[in-house]
Automatic annotation (TrEMBL):
This is ABC-2 type transport system permease protein. It comes from Isoptericola peretonis. Keywords: Membrane, Transmembrane, Transmembrane helix. The chain crosses the membrane at residues 74-93, 114-136, 156-181, 188-213, 233-254.
Amino acid sequence: MSALRTALRVEALAWRRSTVPRLATPLLVGLVPLASIGLVALARSGAVAGAGAAKLADYATGDLATTHLEVAGQVLAVAVLVAGGFALAAAFGQPLADGRAGAYFGLATPRGTLALARCVVVLGWVAACVVVAVALTLGASAVAAASLSAPFGPAAWAAAGRALAAGLLGAGLALPFAVVATATRSPLATVGALIGVVALTQVVVLVGGGAWFPYAVPSLWTGTGGPDAAADVGGAALAITAAVAPVGAGVVVAQWRRLTDV
């Protein structure tokens, strides 16, 4: 455990100094409340017509605060996966691609422990961004609701909880891309795999299998596909989706234990 604690401290320090979180954190944290409040306001302004109005139709009615937080969950379900995938491509793929990982063979800390610490640090960063993004959306939504004398009741709090859970599920779904980064030793290949999974998810949803496909579950659960699609996502599907994170972490730790050359 002492080796893991040391690795966590070192990895956390390295991550704080990395360019990726410096760029991604404000984008991820700021995007969610801006998109949530802005899209709902746009939908209810009547300023959008045609195809745009049809896409925003679900946001034009209903409880204001609840709608804000439902949109936040839908945005988080996608944004967190993309941000986490890019982060893990950099954290695992770049050191292997440029040869810096060769120094790990001279450390007393096992490479599997280093990989686990890196997974925990990146996942912790993404989870913290999710919490802050939902909190900011809650605050902004409460202010907007108060200005219009709209209620902020139990339904809004339930939507906030679902948005938070969807964001955390999306963060866990990013961990398998650490496996891809280790196997390919290429951040670019990892980003390509991420884009491929996002595209595959759209196809799976179109053919009706999204309720059991982990990469589609958070988005559908938050209502992206409508209330009927959200109702199709059951506890078993959520449990399978949550299991992706520990499985991904276990695989990447095993990969790093077996690294013999860099």
